[in-house]
Amino acid sequence: MFQRPIAVGMIALFCLTLTGCGDSHESVMNDSVSMMNSMVTDMESGMAQDKLKAKYESQGKSLKSRADKLGKPTATEEKRLKEKFEPEFAKLMPRLMSAAMKSGGAGMPDLKGMGF
Questions:
Q1: Among candidates 34, 37, 42, 6, which has minimal Cα distance to 116?
Q2: Backbone angles phi, psi at 63, to 5 degrees
Q3: Percentage of residues in the chain having pLDDT higher than 70
Q4: pLDDT at 21 over 70
Q5: What are 46-50's contacts with CB under 8 Å, separation 24+?
Q6: Does residue 79 register a pLDDT over 70?
Q7: How many whole angstroms separate alpha carbon 15 and alpha carbon 67?
Q8: E strand map for the chain
């Protein structure tokens, strides 16, 4: 029931992070993976959606801003980043879905509200 919005949010996050960052494409990808791991851990612990949003909204907006500033990576760089980080996001997806399902979807933060 909540899997589609979660998957769309994760894909949007992945695509946005591929578009760049303030210092390097790889740096914003690393920061995105780190933020998502932390957010999923908090979701698994039962943190309420309003607290998740408060904790991660500014980070999400900052990542999006960094991505927008750099612009799209070259095709070669995009391929390299995808190969490097897609497995990380693939590991996060089942944890994210499981945490969201356990909370009945109530624990899934609105990624759009976080800048994604």
A1: 6
A2: -60, -45
A3: 69
A4: no
A5: 46/103, 46/107, 47/107, 48/106, 48/107, 49/106, 49/107, 49/108, 49/109, 49/110
A6: yes
A7: 10
A8: none
Q: Which helix (H) or strand (E) holds 25?
A: helix 25-44
- Asked whether the beta carbons of 43 and 92 are under 8 A apart, the reply is no
Quote the crossing angle between the two packed helices 49-70 and 3-18, to the nearest 10°: 30
Q: What is the DSSP letter of 114?
A: G
| Domain layout of the chain by residue ranges | 3-100
Q: Give residue 54's identity as a one-letter amino acid code.
A: A
Q: How far apart are CA 34 and CA 25, in angstroms?
A: 14
| C-beta separation of 69 from 77 below 8 A | no
Rounded to whole angstroms, the maximal C-alpha distance in the chain is 40
What is the pLDDT confidence band of residue 9, given thresholds at 50, 70 and 90? low
Residues 64 and 27: their CA atoms lie apart, in Å, by 13
Q: Where are the beta strands (DSSP E) in 16-104?
A: none
pLDDT score of 24: 92
